[in-house]
Structure formats: C-alpha cells, structure tokens
C-alpha cells in the first residue's frame, strides 16, 4: 500500500490553493463543496475564481506565493504551471507538517486527491497512487454506472435508525447482522424507487420483528490459491464472516479478501479447533473455515456437519468437496 486511504473533514478549515487557473478552479470547487475556507494565492487569478468565492471568509491574493501563506492551513494544493513554484510550496508545507498535493507531480507532495464518486453521505474514492490518473477516472466511470443514485439516501435512512437499532441489539454482531440483511432487502429497493416513506415503514417492521442472529458456517476450498478463481458467492461469504479459521497453505492474496475486521485464527490441525469453531457459531458469529487442502476441508466438513446437525445452523460449502 503506497498511500493510506483517508477522508478529511475540512469544514471551516483554512485550505491553501496556490494557483489561479483552470486546474486550480477545479480543486477550489472540490474544497468548497467540502466546506473549506479557501485561501487562493497566484500572480493572476481568473475572474471565475472571484465569482465562485464571493464569501468574505475566503481569501484571494494576487501575488507570488510566500511561506507565510501556509499559516494556519490544514491542507495545501499546489496547482501552478511552474514546477519550481510547486516544488517550493511542497517543500515548505512538508517542513511545517501540512499535507500537500502537487498537481501532475504526486511524488513531490505527500497527499493525493483521488477520483471521487459522490453519493453523499456515501463517498467512494479511487486512486492509482498518482501513476495513471486516466485509469482512476475510467474506474470511477465504471463504478458510477453500477452504484445506485439513491445510495446516499439509503445511508441517510440507516443513519436515522442507528440509535434505535443499537438500543434493540446489545451485541455488535446482532446489529451488524440486522444491517446486512436490511440494507440488501426490499428496504433498499424502495429507497432506490424514491418510496422513502414506504422504506421507512418496512425498516420499522423489520426492526420490530427482528430476532437475535444465529451463527453460520462457511467452508471454502481455494485449491489453486488464485483470487481470480473465487466465485462471487465465495467472495460474498468471505466478506460476511466475522471469524476466519485458515490453514497456512492459504495465500496472502486470498486472505486479503476477507473482511478487515474479522478475527483471524491460524489452524494447523483442524480437529483441534472444532470445539472453538462450534463455540463461535453458538455465540451467533458467522464463521469461515478456508483451506487449500481438500482433505482438511472434507474432514472438517464431515465432523462439523455431524456436530451441528441438530442446531439448524446454515452450512455453505464452496466448492462442494467430493467425499
């Protein structure tokens, strides 16, 4: 990972843009939409910038950059067409511990502005670490085509009921299960169809009738350790599992596709972990056992299926091993 993905709250924060041309104007609009207080410095500033930043809380200075311009700023964008000036701005900003993005020279700064899909409050950012901005833009266009326009409204609706759901379920696992089921149910479809009141009513009904979550077991065989060979169902279950038991023959590339907040438990002898797997399932957790060894998977599948036979625990096996 070349950069740490991070979203910044710049509302009412002073942000410096060095440059007054077309590129600077695009960054100014982006920062303004996030609620920043702009300080724009350039020998010549376009009239469109003046028109856009008409509020008194913004500062526009038609002169060359001076290190004093960095005073009290939370973020800097160097967007001039002068490499030497951009370099000077970047060096001064980094010396003062301020994040700085340098247009067309990401290596000179320490921050990158990604391609953005805005479904506020849902935000998706795509970056190629500055290597290929065009590719980031193309990826953004693909994501724009598959993310519903009503996604932000769905997130806002969920936010309204967050407190009620927390009061209804003491366990974070039960809350997580409720939201995973609800956000992929008819509630989402009603929001996307602009039927907000009906979606709100449906959500309330689901909350009133919701039961505490029961555990599930997922068994996945990754014989070739190739992420590209994983089925959509396997990826979905890997993202749902809250506890992951894995053998040491599973590749790092495969393990990286599991949900980031899952508990990871290394397994050398599957039989020795059967009791612990049962315990996690009894505690209402979604448990994944993943291995590249078909024999281990067959053994654990047979043993656990017997132990769970009378508990009505859903068991998903991908692919189904041959006994």
TrEMBL record:
Domain annotation Tetrapyrrole methylase: ranges: 217-319
Domain of life: Bacteria
Enzymatic reactions: precorrin-2 + NAD(+) = sirohydrochlorin + NADH + 2 H(+)
Record's keyword terms, sorted: Lyase, Multifunctional enzyme, NAD, Oxidoreductase, Porphyrin biosynthesis
Family annotation (InterPro entries): 4pyrrol_Mease, 4pyrrol_Methylase_sf, 4pyrrole_Mease_sub1, Met8-like, NAD(P)-bd_dom_sf, Sirohaem_synt_dimer_dom_sf, Sirohaem_synthase_dimer_dom, Sirohaem_synthase_N
A single GO molecular function term of this UniProt record: methyltransferase activity
Domain Sirohaem synthase dimerisation: 150-207
GO BP term (any one): siroheme biosynthetic process
EC number: 1.3.1.76
Pathway annotation from the record: Porphyrin-containing compound metabolism; siroheme biosynthesis; sirohydrochlorin from precorrin-2: step 1/1
Coiled coil, from the record: none
Name of protein: precorrin-2 dehydrogenase
Native organism: Parendozoicomonas haliclonae
Taxonomic classification: Bacteria, Pseudomonadati, Pseudomonadota, Gammaproteobacteria, Oceanospirillales
């Amino acid at each position: 990972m070349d950069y740490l993905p991070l979203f910044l709250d710049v509302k009412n924060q002073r942000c410096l843009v060095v440059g007054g041309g077309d590129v600077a104007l695009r960054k100014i609009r982006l920062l303004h939409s996030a609620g920043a207080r702009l300080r724009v410095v350039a020998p010549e500033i376009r009239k469109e910038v003046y028109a856009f930043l008409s509020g008194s809380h913004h500062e526009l200075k038609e002169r060359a950059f001076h290190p004093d311009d960095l005073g009290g700023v939370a973020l800097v964008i160097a967007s001039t067409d002068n490499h030497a000036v951009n370099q000077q701005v970047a060096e001064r900003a980094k010396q003062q511990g301020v994040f700085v993005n340098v247009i067309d020279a990401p290596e000179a700064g320490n921050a990158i502005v990604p391609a953005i899909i805005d479904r506020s409050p849902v935000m998706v950012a795509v970056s190629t670490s500055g290597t290929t901005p065009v590719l980031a833009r193309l990826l953004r266009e693909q994501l724009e085509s598959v993310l519903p326009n009503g996604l932000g409204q769905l997130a806002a609706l969920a936010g309204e009921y967050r407190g009620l759901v927390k009061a209804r379920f003491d366990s974070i696992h039960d809350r997580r299960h409720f939201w995973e089921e609800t956000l992929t149910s008819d509630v989402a479809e009603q929001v996307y169809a602009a039927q907000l009141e009906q979606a709100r009513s449906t959500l309330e009904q689901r909350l009133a009738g919701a039961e505490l979550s029961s555990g599930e077991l997922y068994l996945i065989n990754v014989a070739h350790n190739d992420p590209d060979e994983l089925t959509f169902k396997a990826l979905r279950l890997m993202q749902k599992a809250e506890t992951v038991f894995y053998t040491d023959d599973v590749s790092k590339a495969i393990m990286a596709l599991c949900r980031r907040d899952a508990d990871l438990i290394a397994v050398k002898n599957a039989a020795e972990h059967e009791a612990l797997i049962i315990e996690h399932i009894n505690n209402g957790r979604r448990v994944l056992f993943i291995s590249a060894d078909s024999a281990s998977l067959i053994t654990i599948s047979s043993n656990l299926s017997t132990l769970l036979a009378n508990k009505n625990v859903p068991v998903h096996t991908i692919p189904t091993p041959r006994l």
